[in-house]
Amino acid sequence: MAEGRTPQARRRSPGGTDRWHEAPDRAPAEAALAGLRADDAALGRARRTWMWRQSADDATLAGILVDLAEHHATVVVRTCVGGCHIGVVHRVGRDHCVVAVGARRVIVGLAGVTTVEPAPADPAPGVRGTPPLGHRAPPDAGCVADVLAEMCADRPVVAVTTLDGRTTTGVLDAVGRDVIVLGAGGPGAPRYARLDSVVDVTVSAADWTGSG
User: Fold this and answer.
1) pLDDT digits (tens, 9 = 90+) for 185-195
2) Separation CA 56–CA 70 (nearest Å)
3) 61-207 belongs to which CATH class?
């Protein structure tokens, strides 16, 4: 067959004589179909982007953390005193989140959070493609004081970081209306931390009694 020539097919004419007929050129139809598919894909992406932007208008930090927790995303949570917690979000409450960082659990108050981002080495499915919407309220309506009160019966050793950047370690003895009481675990006066000043509280996973 000569180069550039349209393929031919032998067909039998009504009179019974074999004749050569030019095969139909399907290239234009296939190109048109490919164009329609590309247009549909572009419309789908535009629709998803529009829906995400509409939902993002109602986004909250707690809602974004809820989405990240559902994806089991490894996140980087930074705080206003320079803290950096890299782990998986297990629990999100009204004013806090709990991040599993190795063998520790870190209760981070949302008021002290500066940024949250997926860890670059471990982007979760869904986070890499569609960003979290963040429009839902946390299923757990509890607050930091509720979480700490749950742990008081076991008197775990905790490390409390406050707004002045200091970290105080002691036995969690009690939680009042607006104060945390830390025992020395032996001789010595107890120490007190104002609840509103708490940025994060770290406890070992073995002593963690909360859900998540």
Assistant:
1) 666 789 999 99
2) 18
3) mainly beta
Banded model confidence at residue 118, pLDDT cuts 50, 70, 90: confident
Burial of 42 (C-beta count, 10 Å sphere; 0-12/13-18/19+): exposed
Q: What's the pTM value of the predicted model, to 2 decimals?
A: 0.70
Tell me the HSE value of 180 on the side-chain side, using a 13 A CA sphere.
32
Q: Which helix (H) or strand (E) holds 65?
A: helix 61-70
| Mean pLDDT calculated for residue range 40-56 | 62
- CA 85, CA 76: separation in Å to the nearest integer? 6
DSSP state of 178: S
Alpha-carbon gap, residue 201 to 195, rounded angstroms: 11
Task: For residue 204, name the pLDDT band (cuts at 50, 70, 90).
Answer: very high
Which tokens go with 201? 């509280």
